[in-house]
# Entry
Amino acid sequence: MVLNESDTELRLGICGTRGMELADSELLIRITELSGENLRSCYQCGKCSASCPMTDFMDLFPRDVIKQIIEGKEKVLFSETPWVCASCFSCTARCPNDIDIAGVMEAVRQIRLRGKYDRFHPSRIPLDELEGLPQIALIGCFRKMTG
Amino acid sequence: MKSITYFPGCTHQTNGRNMESSGKAVLETLGYQLEEMPEWICCGTVFGLSEDDLFHQLAPIRNLARVEKAGDEKLVTMCAMCYNTLGRANLLVRKDEVALEALNRFMDDEPDYHGRVDVVHLTQFLKDEVGLDKISSKVKRPLEGLKVMPYYGCLLLRPEEVSIDSMEDPTIICNILEAVGIKSIKGSHISQCCGSYHTVDKKEAVARRSSEIISSARKKGADMIALACPLCEFNLDDRQRLLSKNGMPVLYFTELLAIAFGLEDSCDFDEHYVDPRPLLREKGLLGGSNGQE
# Structure
């Protein structure tokens, strides 16, 4: 079955993203490889976004990140949201379709970081703060935000 | 005295040393001696979530291989992040033979790991192996009158495969605190993230998270927050210096056990940004050198 663009929008509007029969975009294939998650099982209920304690600092809700990846919109790679996600797994724990959304956020970060991008540089930490920061925070930050 | 193989991790011997010193003293009173595992290295702090990224499983598996080689079957840790990272890596290689083989081949200078070590958090050890009755039997000063909100954070509870208790309604720290006479308060934010490592790059966001968590404790009438993670401790305690309304003491739950056992000298309360001593003195709960003005 071949859908035209308006059919696609209609289906997205009515029943989220489940059941779409369009070919997977390169972005969706890559995110699926990295995360091991079946994003197409998302029906856009928004429980991830409701559970996330960091949405105040995000430009896209976690649900929107998933939707844009399914739709192959590569601009999602430049969203703030994956860099705000702290991998607390609230979304993962509550997703009714067992999608590890925290793992999907990591996949987005990994695509950027593997493209020789560093989100953060240690030189940005003021020296007077550096001494007081626990190692666990520094290592966690560098692991998540540098390539 | 029984010996327990122990993984300290980086932070419980520096910024978070109060949990280790009080935890050690409490365990010794209960008849257990912590023995650091041989040649431990950083666990990596955060579990690698990418399917193709075995490289970041090397550090946790190297540690487990060294424990297994020493003939031990159990590794106890106090740090929530070490527990999560070691525990998830362990489950990964137990489920995925190909990954385990690849890691073993890569670690050619290490003994092979076979997945035989269990990773246990101190809370589980206290509840399941020591037992709450035994903890109660060692109490010298019941901490009655102290209203404490246990805070679990994320990584002791999620994801489910490593959760130390119910993900949505945990009680394990409450149960341990109640064994020493503490009235524990159930708050709405006990398993909400403190902002974690973003304390490095987004400290204002973390301060806001801390403010919300502390407010939720205040609303329920808590005098204090008790927790089991050195990063949560830093974020909830130290980041209060960025808040206009501060003053909520945040202690490791092991410090409260130490006070109840009469071992408060194992805690250096000066390490906390919010000094818990005025509250503890007000409640008549401090003796020893720590209780002196």
In short: Strands of chain B lie at 2-7, 32-36, 74-77, 118-121, 147-150, 183-184, 224-227, 250-252. Chain B has two domains: 2-122, 140-291. The mean pLDDT of chain B is 96. Chain B touches chain A through 43 residues (CB under 8 Å).
